[in-house]
Amino acid sequence: MSEIPDTVLLEERAELAMNAVAGLPDPDLGGIPYFSADLLARPATLQHGDWDWGSSHGRLLDACLLARQMTGKDTWREVEDGFRTRLTGFFGPDGLSYRQARPERGWPANANLIDQRAVLLSLTTWFVSDGAPEARRLVDRHVAALKRIAIKERDVWFYPASEYTPGGWPSPNAIALHLAPDPASFSGRLIMPLLRYHQATGNEDALELCGWFARLIVEKSGVYNEDGSFNAARAYRSGHFHTRLGTLEGLARYAGHTGDHELTAFVRRSYDWALGQATAFGWTPGDLADQRYEHESCSLVDLIGTGTTLARSGHTAYWGVVERFLRNHLVESQLLDLSWVESAPDASGDEPGWTTHVRVGERVLGAFAGYGAPNDYVCDVELGRGHTADVQACCVGSGVRGLFWGWNSVVTGNRINLLLTRATQQVTVLSHLPHEGRVDLDVHENLPELRMRVPDWAGYAKVRVSRESGGFDGGQAGAWAPDGYLLIPAPRAGERVTVTFPVPETTSTEVAAGREYQVRWRGDDVIGISPEGTARPMYSGRKVHPTAPRRDYDLTRPAKEWTW
């Protein structure tokens, strides 16, 4: 064990989230995971839903693989293998992933287009992580099927309904789900995993689909308005944030891959508009209609993913946005306190195969909020849809992906982008924030240079660098690189470089769904929100010390780094 500052540790949060990933499978239904939890119910309830199949399995398998890379632990291999086995069993002869029929609920078997994205995401992660031939075989067939079923016109390819059936288009259940042929939901969100799979394998069908779907979204669909805002029409799911932001993440990646600067400008215009609808600490509205009062953790993860993609493409100002979201609403939306949750002592009130009340809180400990308020894990307002789901399987899986995107971006090459604790083969970053404006860099290899992003609020005049060969301050000539990063020349193996800077305390007024919140900040960290939440308040328990507390912990230093 090594002593490190007791501050936000993304890999530890991923390990905590795996309790919820492992707690969702239902033994009464052969391991099919529950989808949602009502934690305000007395007793609390876990319930199945029609997202249990490809969507939930894809998200949760993805989380298992990402958490394994972040933590270096294989503790959940049995859980991971269960999700993988069931997910691969959902594939039909046509290469698509099918939801299984549940006649007692009126659900026919169908290949839901939203599910296909989660399936493709997890199988691509499986291949990138392990190089598994079975993953490649499945994805190659899946991509071929996605190409085959697309309606192809001269200047556009598209999917005409939310579900495809063994008999083709359309499905009568599409009407029951009130899902219009929404290009962002069905096509746009596929771009990100399709492109990553192409980059990993060279699959040309995947790249071709990316091109057609990007053209559909940008030139034909009307999903985004000219000013970048989301189209609020009901036909476009009332500007549903999760699907719009997920589409932007794919477009940002495709723009970088193809060198399309005009497309990057399109993404930035819309992304900046979306940031204006969110709070500075990461709460987002669900959509522009009745869901605008509730935040879905999936949307925040999309904001983090798009921000890291744009920042890696050279728009480095977005690193500050990503860090605020990671430090605040992502980790604060994780369920770590069960004192307010009541579980049943036995299964007498259960409906096997549909609901359970037993150990609900313990099973979802570590989950990320399904629908939350700016100041509360629970969204229970009078407006909009009122109280809905406190936990959703999709948000559990997405939360781990958000942690991974942050963890994977702390260090890229010779750059320290995020001031969060993380170890790599080249350097270990030890962050003392928000207690102290101090970051220690333990160097493991001789390097030509290191560059570290210093937050704008820290200025430059009082930035100090301490190292064995002599220190310097941020006001000296040569202290900064042309990209705005602090420049540390020729760090040597075994050296510790310490960077210090002031951390101001400020206040802001944040508006979320028409309501004002007074927010107290210390640097990038929220240290209090008024008014406070009621069910499970957020941010009210944060404490700042004169010096960062210490703890013993062995950081993960992967021998093989891979990224999304």
Automatic annotation (TrEMBL):
InterPro entries, per database record: 6-hairpin_glycosidase_sf
Chain positions covered by the region annotation Disordered: 532-551
Domain of life: Bacteria
Protein name: Uncharacterized protein
